[in-house]
Write a structure and sequence with these properties.
The chain is an alpha/beta fold and about 250 residues long. It has a single domain, classed as 3-Layer(aba) Sandwich (Rossmann fold). The protein is built from nine helices and six strands. α4 links the parallel β4 and β5.
Length: about 250
């Protein structure tokens, strides 16, 4: 599996799953644009990739803002070339009782988790159409598969990502573009550590008796982004250690 001569964009690449995805794709030869609202974090990810001999740039900006997306894509193309691999990873989470979810909180969740992938995909798909080749991998969530208490807005936003994945997969199946999604299960990331959960206690309830690592998700993404997955589109590659079986 090699991504030599491919340019990849990873949104939310400053830490956690996004950082791992960017690192794995770069290690396999891709030139990676690390997009993140946290420019300093994105710069650290890109610098680590370059220190290991890879090609990477850091691009700051809001992936849910159309103007920022246009600017980020222009810079990526100018420095690394047309984009062939897109990983829509940027997202937020929150834990709130359903009746306590405000419109502001709901709108923020949908804006970042669902509008963001729409805007970035809309910007990048033309590159893929010209090339006759492209890979879009959306990071969804096992919470959208199983449901999750106190996460109604989050599960709804990620359920929308799953629907978008399937719609684009059908729309572009004849253009050499595949679109798939990876719903992580319980992954030990900084975002999870910031939540109101006991990470070790929850991990002990998993079938594998451990939390997943960001790299577990990154390798699933790498497969879906590869030439080896050319006949795989509209699919769900659950990466959850057996938490949810489908």
């Amino acid at each position: 599996m090699s991504f030599a001569h491919r340019t990849a964009v990873v949104t939310g690449g400053a830490r956690g799953i996004g950082e791992a995805v960017a690192t794995v794709l770069a290690a396999k030869g891709a030139a990676v644009a690390v997009w993140d609202l946290d420019l300093e974090g994105a710069q650290m990810t890109a610098a680590a990739i370059r220190a290991d001999g890879g090609r990477a740039i850091a691009v700051g900006g809001d992936a849910a803002d159309a103007g920022c997306v246009t600017e980020a894509a222009a810079r990526t193309r100018a420095e690394l070339g047309p984009v062939g691999i897109l990983v829509n990873n940027a997202g937020v989470t929150a834990y709130e009782e359903f009746t306590g979810i405000t419109e502001k909180s709901w709108d923020r969740m949908i804006r970042i988790n669902l509008k963001g992938p729409y805007l970035v995909s809309r910007e990048i798909v033309p590159d893929m159409l010209v090339a006759g080749w492209g890979r879009i991998v959306n990071i969804s969530s096992s919470s959208a598969q199983t449901g999750a208490p106190r996460m109604g807005h989050y599960a709804a936003s990620k359920g929308g990502v799953i629907g978008l994945t399937r719609a684009l997969a059908i729309e572009y199946a004849g253009n050499g573009i595949t679109v798939n999604h990876v719903p992580p299960g319980f992954i030990d990331t900084p975002l999870v550590r910031q939540g109101p959960v006991d990470v070790d206690a929850v991990a002990a309830t998993m079938p594998m008796k451990r939390a997943g690592a960001p790299e577990d998700v990154a390798h699933a993404v790498a497969y879906l982004a590869s030439d080896e997955a050319a006949y795989v589109t509209g699919q769900t590659l659950s990466t959850n250690g057996g938490r949810y079986l489908v």
